[in-house]
């Protein structure tokens, strides 16, 4: 996983909302999808319980506005072994 900055362009100005490594939840059968900015925040706010996804992204400081975010389904029982 990478340390990433989540930024919002609300009101036409880029503002850093968070700077963390993320583990989030979503259904196992969802395909890989790319999300940046508010789309990523919306996804994390409306995730079902029971499945997890590791958020992998490139730090904004290295590739600003890069769209390489992606989500990979992981069974929660696998995480317990980590």
Walkthrough of the structure:
The protein is α+β, with helices and mostly antiparallel strands and about 80 residues long. It has one domain. Helices cover about 15% and strands about 30% of the residues. The strands form 2 sheets. The protein has a 3-stranded antiparallel β-sheet with strand order 3-4-5. The chain has a two-stranded antiparallel sheet with strand order 1-2. Strand 1 and strand 2 form a beta hairpin. The longest helix is centred in the middle third of the chain and has 9 residues. The protein is globular.
Key phrases:
disordered N terminus; two-stranded antiparallel ribbon; 5 strands; single chain; alpha+beta; 17% helix; disordered C terminus; 82 residues
